[in-house]
Design brief:
Alpha-Beta Plaits, 32% helix, globular
């Protein structure tokens, strides 16, 4: 399963702030941020991913996210 989210991340520093929050989610097998385009996105892969859990993790890191 793969979900993509539009985010307010702007740089590698932002990505580093989000990393521990996404890495803590057991349903996330892998994720990657694409900061080279607009809108900036995070694509998450894993089993039984719940969009609300991903959005909450990104928001805990201080950023906004929504399903792309």
């Amino acid at each position: 399963m793969e979900l993509t989210f539009k985010t307010t991340l702007k740089c590698g520093g932002c990505e580093a702030k989000v990393k521990p929050f996404l890495d803590d989610l057991s349903e996330v097998a892998s994720w990657k941020a694409d900061l080279s385009q607009t809108p900036k996105t995070i694509t998450v892969q894993g089993e039984n991913i719940k969009a609300e859990n991903i959005i909450a993790a990104i928001e805990k890191a201080g950023f906004k996210a929504e399903i792309a």
